[in-house]
User: What shape does this take?
Amino acid sequence: MEENKDFLNECISITNTTIDKVFKIDSNDEQEKQILGAYLFGMFNGLGHEKNSTPVEIQGAMIQVANEKLKCSLESAVQFSQFLINSTDKGSHPTMFAIIHRGLEGYFMYKNGETEKLSRDFCDIIEVVKAATER
Assistant: This one.
């Protein structure tokens, strides 16, 4: 049980650090919040792999972060986390699949203190998705 709390606390720490210091998003832009959520989900999976966390622990952390930090209702946070889980199948949603995997790589940038590289990586994703959806 204590390990669950440690994992959740580390996920919240990652979220707070990245939102406050690394990623710049418009908190009123739903698309940017979804991209951030997918990227964080990838980061949580990287941390979860290192900590031998269960999929349920990772999903629980994602629900809490989506609810508290991304300001989703609890119902929306649960639905979003399930959407992210489904998106780990490339055929389900290739764009979200790619963002989740970039977030997984982003976890290791975060862990190694490569905040500038992490910020660039995230900003590149935002730019590419925005450009593709504005066509």
About this structure: The chain has a mean pLDDT of 92.
